[in-house]
Amino acid sequence: MRIKRPKFNWRPFSHKQKQILTWWNENSAVKDKEGIIADGAIRSGKTVSMSFSYVMWAMETFRGQNFGMAGKTIGSFRRNVLFWLKLMLVSRGYKVKDARADNMVTVTKKGVENYFYIFGGKDERSQDLIQGITLAGMFFDEVALMPASFVNQATGRCSVDGSKFWFNCNPDGPYHWFKTEWIDKVKEKQLLHLHFTMDDNLSLSERIKERYRSMYSGVFYKRYILGLWAMAEGVIYDMFDEVQNVIQTGMLPTSFPKYYVGVDYGHTNATVFLLFGQLDNKLYLIKEYYHSGADASGEARAPSDYARDFVEFIAGFDVKKIFIDPSAKGFITELKKMGVRRIEEADNAVLPGIESVAVALKEQQLFVSALCTETIKEFFSYIWDVKASQRGDDKPIKQNDHAMDALRYVIYNLLGKPRRSKFIV
C-alpha cells in the first residue's frame, strides 16, 4: 500500500504577496533595500509568501552559504512555517534535506546548494545560540515575540555581501521595541515595509474572515484583525457579558463528566480556588473559594490551613487535574502531604493566557455561575497597566487579579494556546 505524501495546493497570490515574492528581483525598483518587514492581521498570507520568497532569493543569489530562520521556538517554527515551506519547495523542484538533529535544512536545485539553520528566539538567553555563525540572510517569523537582544545578535551575524533581513509578525503595542526600532525607522534602515490585512489572502472566503472577526474584541481585535500596533488599555475582558457568560442558579448542568480546579495561592495576598466542570468542550465555573490572605486576627494563614480548606473545597468531586502556579511550592507540598493528587504546575504565561480566556468568552466556551461573585467582580476590574504599555510591555495591573489568574491557568492549559498560533499568519 503506497503512502500518499502531502502536497501544497497553490492558490492565486494577492498584489502584496507578489510584492514579497519579487521585491528582490533584478527588475525591482526596491531591490537595493536592506530587507523587508511584513506585518499585519492574522491569516493574511504573510508567512507563505515571505518564507518561500526568502528561500528563492537565497538560491538565486548565493551558492554554498549559511542562512538563518527563526521563530519564537524551534518547535513553533517547524509547525507554523517549515512544514509548509518544505511542501512548497518540493512542489517547485527543489530538493530539501531536513537534518532535525542539527536543525539544519539543506536546499538544492540545479547544482546550487545552501544551508538554512533554524533558531528559537524565545528569551534573552537565545542570543547565545546564534553567536559565532556567519550568515548571508536572516528570516524572523513572529519577530514581535522575540527579545531585541536575539534579533540584534542575529542581524549582526549577516556579514556576507548582499545579505538581507526578512521580518514577519503580527502587531503588538505601539511602544514595542520592534515597532520603535525597526518599523518606525524603515527609511533610516533602508527597509521595505508592507502592511497586510486578511483581504490580502485570496484563499480566505468571506465566511472564514467573519469567523476570525468574531473571535476577538478590544486590543486583540485591533491587532490581529485590523493589524494595528494598538495600545493595551482599559478593561482587559471587555467582551465579558453578564447576560451571555453568567448562568443563574438552577440553570447550570447538574453534573459534569470532568472537573478541574485552578489555584492562585497567596501567602499575604488573596488565595483563590476555582472549580470548573467541562461538558461538550465548554467550561463552567461552578464554585469559588476566595480568602483575603489573613485571619480575623490580621495574621497570615499557613499553607497547611489553605491545604485543609482545599481538601474540603473539592470533597465530593472527582477532579481530573489541579492547575497551580509553579511558584506555590510550599502549598503544593502541603497538598501532597494530605493525599491530594493530580496536581499540575500551570503554564502561567500571562498574555497568551489572557488571549485564550478572551477567545473562550467570545466563542461561548466559558460560563460562570452567578454564585461566583468574586470572580465576576474581577472580570469588571481587571485592567491593563497603561504605564507598562508605554514601556512596550503588555501586562495587567497587579490588583483584583487573583481569580483571574486561577481562571487563566485552567483555560490556557485546557483549551490550549491562542488559536492564532495554530495558523499560518
TrEMBL record:
The source organism is Paenibacillus hunanensis
Entry superkingdom: Bacteria
In terms of Pfam families, this protein maps to:
Terminase_6N (PF03237)
Protein's UniProt name: PBSX family phage terminase large subunit
